[in-house]
Amino acid sequence: MSTWTTEIEAKWQAKWYAAKINEAERDNRPKFMIIFAYPGLTGYLHVGHMRGYTYVDAIGRYKRMCGFNVMFPLGTHATGNGAISLAKRIKAHDPKTIEYLIANGCPEDMIPNLTEPMDVVNFFNQVYQDQYWRRFGFLADWRRFTSTTNPDYQMFIQWQFRKLNDAGLLIQKPYFAPACVECGPVAIDASETDLSKGGSAETTEYTLLKFKYGDMFLVAATLRPETVYGQTNFWVNPDVEYVKVRRGDETWVISRPSYEKMIYQKDGLELIGTVKGSELVGKEAVAPVIHRPIPVLPATFAKPEVGTGLVTSVPSDAPDDWMALLLLQRDEQAMARYGLDPEKVRAIKPIPIINTKGYGPMPAVEMIERMGITEGDDPRLNEAKKQIYKDGFHTGRMNETCAEFAGLRVDEAKELIKKMMIENGEAEVFYDLSEEVVCRCGKPVVIKKVPDQWFIDYGNVALTEATKAHCKTMHIIPPEFYTNVQGILDWFRERACVRQGNWLGTPFPFDPKWIIEAISDSTLYPIYYTISNYCNSGQIRPEQLTEEFFDLVFLGKGAVPDVAAATGIDESLLSRIRDDVRYFYPLDINLGGKEHMTVHFPAFLKNHVAILPPEFWPRGIFVNWYITGKLGKISKSKGGAEPIPDAAERFGVDALRLYYAHIAAPFADVEWDEGVVENYASRIERIMRTIEEMKGLTGTESKTIDKWLISRMNNRAGTIAEAMNDYDLRRMANETYFETLADVRWYMRRGGNNSGTVAKVLSMWIRMMAPITPHIAEELWEGLGEKGFVSIAPYPEPDNELIDSYAEVAETYLVNVMSDINEILRVTGISPKRVILYTAPEWKRDVLSIGLELASGGQLTIPALTKAVMSRDDLKRRGKEAAEFARKIAEDLMRRADGERKRLSIEVDELSYLTESAAFLSKEVGATVEVYSADDASAPDPQKKARAAQPRRPAIYVE
């Protein structure tokens, strides 16, 4: 779109903000508070983020037009190491970082000023507000903006943690947590707030098995300690150089990558030497538990970065073990190369240990044969392994080979056998990540032991049950999340809430060496927006935000005079703040991306229930899906999408807003496609041209088509109101920008020319556009000569007195007739000279009427309609013809929905309506159109078409 859109956007944004229609002050209107989960300050945002953000603004605008006092506040999440990492890279003149900043519009002379973390925070706080949210015309209350590094916000978070402690929900114990080797603890979740890679990684618990090898131990890592009774051999990668590590009075052999991870979990590890994997091949090691020597065999699948790089082999239940053993037994050259005795290698047989439902005694052997796997690099091996592990864990029982554990379920035996080995000194526990994880600073993330970690006890039974009960009263969309949140709340248990190290964030009130981590300081914050404006304006200083202050305004505890005396805040101001909180809270909608379903939202819910009174518990959650790039989710820290200001300039803000609202349901990922966005820009331009065309209509005659259009608009207002009960912006957009445009074009095509109709329709239509495309709507509203902002004009409500069902049904009938004519012309290829329409005879209309009456009473069947028809003498005389038509009508009506049958029950004088519309039809089809009733014996009927006429489906003859 051209620069005129940018000019219109700037014009109306300036007017809105000057008039302060975006600011929410307590009054007598019903309130509506809506937010989106504030973004982390880890870089520039991208077009994908604006999807959910635009939903919030559009919903807020709609509610404002419906008479609500809307509070839409904004903030940013600066907690963590995102700003620290970015500042470090800028300070180091990292070329990729500099290129990234410039590509996203950062002035080059600004870059040297971004070498300190808080400079980065302050810079991006302005970028987010000015280049993104204001640029999109959000009616946000900018006075309430906050960021998690603001001193006043941090006072609020410290109060929150004191309340959690008062509730007995803070606990301290040893913990193994993800940590950057340079920055310290990080959060691993789908939002990747602290990460540049690996947000989907999970913490994996390995059992380290010790195999006696001379005066050392070969240490293998396993996820299945219960399978030790089936060990037949030991795998070592001959191409890897392993390290010798002193662990107390023991010497371990493990891979170097595993050693580099273990030093963060186990005290006193000392690297004392190396040993080549090839030197171990052909030797024997004594396996734990079974206490017998097993051969060490070569296996290149033993990766040094996975586990310890050493693997014990259980070929009965591990497909990759069985496949590797089978291939080695067949490979004469390999056995010769490593000096292995072929007879001894071939003598190794799987040992059955688990009876699994649906399998024989050796599931891995059976699965390999069943799937036809013959190569060690077949990707189906992993699939087979997962399936066997899953089936064994859920249905398997240990067999008689497993000593005292025989007969136990696998899930029971796993923990008991692991416990036994640890107690006997034959095993230890080691934690690792399921995939590579990289911190935003670029360094690797490992699992580190924290001896005195603080947690929030989200597993508290009373808290969980109260939260689950409240969720049943909430408006949670999509419906799947409403259902799933119950299980998520059960699953969401203890969560580490603080970190040590170089982090931005709030100091832990009970021990300032800790910083409250990024999820834990972003749960209760929506309530802080109700008072943040007083801090931003300087009416309250951070040091005045004491525990007594928050207890009063958020919990209603304490007396105003006492708190005023303790804090120095004026009594009237305290009362005003308390009243603001009670007026605006609870939060009506919290919108966030789907990554928040298992991270942010459960913590958000449980903190509200744990700390605030029930009247302040949230009312709604809205989850939106992603805008993706060609290769998956777009990352704000890694680029991959057009900068928001550039997209706004190219397409126009309103085109982007319409794209987000209409392209798909909020609960589906959408691939960013510039061509599609351009189509939405073109649609807006077409609508504007159509409106200008309509404004040129100056007639005064009122026709049926005028009643039709007015009725359609009022029906549409009702449809949108129904859709917005579930915040269905896509349906709202479809009705407004597609269906209404089609109706208006049809009105003009049908010769509609009434200026009064046009005025009413344009007033409704432009108001319907205001929530989604507000800038264009304001421009069009002004063009109508209307006063004030359309953004605060009343949203159209349906006027039932103006809904003319007859006009709508009759016009739909005409559209269908024209469609049938065009289809005949298309199929036959005829260039018509004359078209004759025959409306249904009276007796067929009577049969339909009887059928509709039976249907309305729930009594419609083929026999019932046939009987009713044949009970009338005039119809009975038609014999088989009447009976056959009755059957046809019954079948048709039974297929139709109630709404369709209701429309059929509205009697349309087909003959009159088609006769009145004959001139229009003639013009449309390019031929003379004649209309007759099939009852008219004098009607021309060259091909005996009249007898095929049915109610609402006239017979058609073309010549």
Summarize the structure.
The protein has 959 residues and is an alpha/beta fold.
**SSE class:** alpha/beta
What profile does the largest beta sheet have? 6 strands, mixed
Intertermini distance: 47 Å
As a percent range, the share of strand residues is 15-25%
Compute the average pLDDT: 95
The top-level CATH class of the domain at 203-433 is Alpha Beta
Write down the Rg. Answer: 37 Å
In CATH, the topology of the domain at 203-433 is named Isoleucyl-tRNA Synthetase, domain 2
Tell me the CATH superfamily of the domain at 203-433: Valyl/Leucyl/Isoleucyl-tRNA synthetase, editing domain
Strand order of the largest sheet: 13-11-12-9-8-19
Broad shape: globular
- Please estimate the helix content: 40-55%
Count the E strands.
33
Q: What would CATH call the architecture of the domain at 203-433?
A: Alpha-Beta Complex
Low-confidence regions: none
Helix tally equals 36
Characterize the structure shown:
- There is one protein chain.
- By secondary structure, the protein is α/β, with parallel strands linked by helices.
- Among the domains are: 203-433, Valyl/Leucyl/Isoleucyl-tRNA synthetase, editing domain (Isoleucyl-tRNA Synthetase, domain 2, Alpha-Beta Complex); 688-806, Orthogonal Bundle (Isoleucyl-tRNA Synthetase, Domain 1), CATH 1.10.730.10; 813-958, no CATH class.
- The protein is 45% helix and 16% strand.
- The chain contains 36 helices and 33 strands.
- The strands form ten sheets. Strands 13-11-12-9-8-19 form a six-stranded mixed β-sheet. A five-stranded parallel β-sheet has the order 2-1-26-27-22. It has a four-stranded antiparallel β-sheet with strand order 6-5-21-23.
- A hairpin with a 6-residue loop joins strand 14 and strand 15.
- Helix 15 packs across helix 21, helix 18 (547-555) packs across helix 20 and helix 30 packs across helix 31 (862-870).
- The two termini are 47 Å apart.
